[in-house]
Design a protein that fits this description.
By secondary structure, the protein is an alpha+beta fold. The chain contains 20 helices and 25 strands. A 5-stranded antiparallel β-sheet has the order 19-18-17-20-23. Strands 3-2-1-13 form a 4-stranded parallel β-sheet. Strands 5-4-9-10 form a 4-stranded antiparallel β-sheet, with no helix packed on it. Helix 4 crosses helix 7 and helix 5 packs antiparallel against helix 6.
Length: 680
């Protein structure tokens, strides 16, 4: 028998605060989660939508080192950018907090301590890579080396981005510190582990027997992990950024990000509802749903539930509707290659068109397999569906009302068999949409909502009120009334998917808030109700706008091919023989500033065609920083990173010419070239 719940708690994966949000994030996690939450709110159900930034992962420390700033500065910048991007696209969190909050630090620490005090962890010693010069243990992502599969020189300790192989640091050939270039040694270190193997039997019953309704991709991945046999997983790491392990003698160790981050769902709820949060996390009549991408399945279906089970007082997720990945123009979205459509950039090029992107990403949602975003499909769906079907029907209904009745809703006359058949077909779709949304099938639910608009469009086209307005004026009143009632219903049907256009449609109809229960009613607009001025819900997107986006991607592709700035060979020194191996590139100076307490140094932020890099140069006596901003300079791209005081790291060397009097002149180009272009 299906369990009955009194409330629903919805979480969405916490994005790393080391960069912006792109369409892959939106399609994979946040739009489907928002659709589900908005649907439940329309139904009048009690629901909470919890989000936040993950600020303790290795990616944020890498970004900080790359830019030569503190980790806190990185997470502050990107937390705000991410939060603003979500708000601009209508992702309607009840709270969007962060894992650096005081509430989270205390709750995560207390959670660990309870499991520690009740003997739920095991302490194990293992050998891990250590940089003797930097005096630090390294995470997998901080280690680079030669890939054992494709022999790329700069594979990470967890993955080779050239061939896509999943790796471990032990597999790398000649591993080194990605930040310093230093060679590594193995050293023993002790950590606490969550013994997942002790929960194998419970997980097999809970997932494989009790949750067969989960999506095949989620269920299948869980089964694969369980079939391989679970092993203890470390919950602490040797790092200087994160939540300190609350155990005496654990100095220099922090909670592992995968342990810390999901607890953020709980702490963010606690931050929002300090006196009422336990109702949402510890009451069996609360339904918990995690929205995630497929790279997070194991953490949300196996690891986090085990943590909650071990703690003993929390509810477990009822469903984990994970999406697969979204590609861009038949290529994997890659932040390191800038192969993405960034939300904050999209709104510059397509202002006010948040719902268009929400529509296309839902229509192409990678719900059970990877899917593809193309600008041609984006244009076609906007022009052929949003404009030609939904927008066209609404606009015709409102414009005809304005033309014939001065924008006043006419009274409905006799309902013919044709009218009733149309109304019945229109109403019948509500049940289909409900079933699909309740089953997390958002792509198919959107199709059904659009089918309601198609029914309305066909009804007007078949009725042809503009032809019979003079001969059958009473008939026209009925046609227009029925059309307007269907238009009002569409504001409800599309509310969860396209909240901005639904709000605009309600405004044009001069209607207040509507509920899911209202969907299907044909009396939402009473006779003599005054409508507001009609306007287009959607606009046609012209070829020129799409061509500009395709040109942008082509420029990125060329820059990546030209730059290929990752060194094929990291040079240990720069004698004459090695000079021939220097990788010389052109970059654009985005920012330049003096380095405090180092009067000779300037710190540059250089656009190098792929990711921005920091370069420190001893030319402060020859230039004011503002003189160099915007210039294109030549630099050596494949020197190993050089570490200065206070954690400042330089990722290259800017080339200058030395005059006879000792003054320097930075080498530039005589005309603009793409950042990352090779100097030959």
């Amino acid at each position: 028998m299906e369990k009955k719940f009194n409330r629903t708690l919805v979480t969405s994966a916490l994005p790393y605060a080391n960069g912006g949000i792109h369409i892959g994030h939106l399609a994979g996690v946040y739009v489907p989660a928002d659709i589900y939450v908005r649907y439940l709110r329309l139904k009048g159900e009690e629901v909470l939508f919890i989000g936040g930034s993950d600020e303790h992962g290795v990616p944020v420390t890498i970004r900080a080192k790359k830019e030569g700033i503190t980790v806190q500065e990185v997470v502050d910048r990107y937390h705000n950018l991410i939060k603003d991007s979500f708000a601009e696209f209508g992702i309607s969190f009840d709270v969007y907090s962060r894992t650096t909050s005081d509430t989270h630090k205390k709750h995560a620490s207390d959670f660990f301590r309870k499991l520690y005090d009740t003997g739920k962890f095991v302490e194990l010693e293992s050998e891990q890579f250590y940089d003797e010069a930097a005096q630090e243990f390294l995470t997998d992502r901080n280690i680079k080396g030669e890939c054992p599969r494709c022999h790329a020189a700069d594979a990470y300790g967890d993955q080779c981005e050239k061939c896509g192989s999943t790796l471990s640091p032990e597999e790398l050939i000649n591993p080194y510190n990605a930040a310093t270039g230093n060679t590594l040694v193995k050293r023993p270190t002790s950590h606490w582990y969550l013994p997942l193997d002790n929960y194998q039997g419970w997980l097999e019953k809970w997932i494989l027997e009790e949750h067969k309704e989960w999506r095949p991709n989620v269920y299948g991945q869980c089964k694969s992990w369980l079939d391989l046999g679970l092993r203890p997983r470390a919950v602490t790491r040797d790092l200087n950024w994160g939540i300190p392990v609350p155990v005496e003698g654990a100095e220099g160790k922090v909670l592992y990000v995968w342990f810390d981050a999901p607890i953020g769902y709980i702490s963010n709820t606690k931050e929002l509802l300090p006196n009422d949060w336990e109702k949402w996390w510890k009451s069996e009549d609360t339904k918990l749903v995690h929205f995630i991408g497929k790279d997070n399945i194991v953490f949300h279906c196996i690891v986090f539930p085990t943590m909650l089970k071990a703690e003993g007082s929390y509810i477990l997720p009822d469903n984990v509707p994970s999406n697969e990945f979204l590609n861009l123009e038949d290529d994997k979205i890659s932040t390191s290659r800038n192969w993405a459509v960034w939300l904050h950039e999209y709104l510059v090029d397509f202002p006010g068109k948040q719902d268009v992107l929400r529509y296309v990403l839902t229509a192409n949602a990678p719900e059970t397999k990877d899917n593809n975003f193309t600008w041609a499909d984006f244009q076609a769906r906007n022009n052929n569906e949003l404009v030609a079907v939904y927008g066209n029907f609404v606009n015709r209904a409102l414009q005809l009302t304005k033309k014939y009745y001065n924008g006043v809703v006419p009274a409905c006359g006799e309902i013919t068999e044709f009218d009733q058949a149309t109304i019945d077909e229109f109403r019948s779709i509500k049940a289909k949409i409900e079933t699909l949304l309740d089953g997390y099938r958002f792509r198919d639910a959107l199709k059904e909502a659009m089918n309601m608009a198609r029914i309305g469009n066909k009804y007007l086209a078949d009725s042809e009120p503009w032809k019979v307005v003079k001969t059958e004026p009473e008939r026209v009143k009925t046609i227009i009334n029925v059309s307007l009632q269907m238009a009002a219903n569409l504001a409800i049907a599309f509310e969860a998917f396209l909240p901005f256009s639904s709000a605009q449609l309600r405004q044009m109809l001069n209607l207040g808030a509507l509920t899911w229960e209202d969907l299907g009613r044909m009396d939402l607009l009473p006779a003599d109700h005054q409508l507001a001025e009609p306007a287009l819900l959607f606009e046609k997107i012209e070829d020129e706008a799409i061509a500009a986006q395709m040109q942008r991607l082509e420029d990125i592709k060329k820059a990546n091919e030209a730059a290929n700035y990752r060194a094929e060979e990291v040079l240990p020194d720069t004698d004459f023989d090695n000079f021939l191996k220097l990788d010389l590139r052109v970059g654009t100076v985005l920012a330049c500033e003096r380095v405090p307490k180092m009067k000779k140094l300037l710190k540059f932020l250089i656009a190098d065609g792929l990711e921005n890099r920091t370069i420190v140069s001893g030319i402060a006596q020859h230039y004011e920083p503002e003189q160099l901003v915007g210039k294109q300079v030549c630099f050596v791209a494949n020197f190993p990173p050089r570490k200065f005081k206070d954690g400042l790291v330089s990722e290259g060397m800017i080339l200058s010419a030395v005059n006879a009097d000792g003054t320097l002149s930075v080498m530039t180009t005589d005309r603009e070239v793409l950042p990352g272009s090779k100097v030959q």
